[in-house]
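Just wondering, can you check both lines?
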Amino acid sequence: MDGAAAGDIWVEAWLAIWIRPRATMRRIVAADPRKFVLGIAFVAGALAALGMRVNMAVAPIAPAHMPMRMPHLGPFGVAIAALLTGGFSVAMLYAFGALYRWSGAILGGTADAISVRAALAWSRVPSIFITIVDIFAAAIWMPSASSMRHPTLSPFGLIGLVGGIWSFVISLKCLGEVHGFSAWRALGAILLGFLAIIVVSVAVAITIWLAVVVGRALA
C-alpha cells in the first residue's frame, strides 16, 4: 500500500470502523496491524476507569440503596487508577489476543496474534468515543433530589447502552475479518475462549484442592 493510501486509512479508520468494520479492519491489517494498537488499548482502559469514577460520583442513587460509597481518591488517586487500568488493559490485549488466535484457529481461522490484537484494539475505538461522551454527560447531568429518590435511565445512558451493543457487534466483525470467517463464527471463537478459561480455572482449583488434601493427609 502506498504512503497516500496508508495515510488515508489512519485518518478514516476512527470513524469508518463504526459503519464498515470489516473493510476498515482489512485495510488496517494491510497497512500496519501494529500501529496505534497499544495506545488504543491503554486509552480505552484508562477512560473506562475514569468514566466509572465520574459516574459513581454523580450516580442518582439514594444513600439507602448505597450505604458504602467509593472512597474519595482525589485527582492524583484517579490518575494513578487510570494509569493502572490502562496498563492492565494492554496486558489483557495480549492475553486475549493469544486466546482468540488459538480459539479462532480451532474454528478454521487463519489470523496470527498480531492481527487478532489489532482487531481487538480497533474494535474498542467506538467504546472510547462513547466513554468520552458518557464522562461529559455525567459531568453535566447532575441529579436533582427527586431524581436521587427515583433514578431513571437518562438519554445519554440509553445511547451508551445501544452504542455498547453495537461495539460488541463491531468486535465480532473485526475478529471475523482477520480470521477469515463470519461474525457468528467469531462469536463461537469468543465463547470457546471463555470456555477454555473456565476449564483451566476449574482444573487449577481442583489441583490446589487436591494438593491441600494430600498435604494434610501426609502431615
Q: What stands out?
A: Confidence is low (pLDDT under 50) at residues 62-68, 144-151. The radius of gyration is 21 Å. Residues 3-218 form one domain. The chain has one domain: 3-218.
